[in-house]
Specification:
Arc Repressor Mutant, subunit A; Tetracycline Repressor, domain 2; 0% strand; 2 domains; mainly alpha
Amino acid sequence: MTQRTPTQLVEPELMAAALEILGEEGPEGFTVRAIARRANVAPMAIYNHFDGKFGLLDAVWTEGFVLLRRALEATAFNANEPLVNVAHAYRDFALTHRSHYNVMFVQRFVGFTPSAHAAQVAHQSFQVMVDRVRSAQGVGVLTGFDPVDAAQMLWSAVHGFVSLEMLNINFAPDRDQAYTHYVRGMERGLSSLDE
């Protein structure tokens, strides 16, 4: 007889199993049975602990934005390059937490809509970007833009670079250096529009 996962470990095991399956198989492999088998629990545990597959997906989505927010908040502000560190924190998060990032930004799951709580957590992550733009404006960068608009442009730009990199459609010989140049160029280019 197979020994089941202790109750207090069920939720962490389900989260770990979900992330592994998402990383290995993507949305196609994300089924209740596959997750339960990987976590060594009965399929009903997913309903009992997360209200089903989409509840578990919502938990992954929410955890991803919590981790992203923490990564962005942990960056030091550099007045000479006010957006470079936060942009690198975003990229580092994506490359380290690929399964989370794919659920948050890349893959779509038919029938899944993030909960109101999950959307609020996502907004908190975006607010860190807005705060960083305001700091940049304090040292004379991006002063001609509304902070929310500038943060959205920054987020969209780094997301594009990172998403292509994750799909292995990045042909730069030194991706770190190319990304730094990209962010610096974007910072300078947008700032030149202030004039």
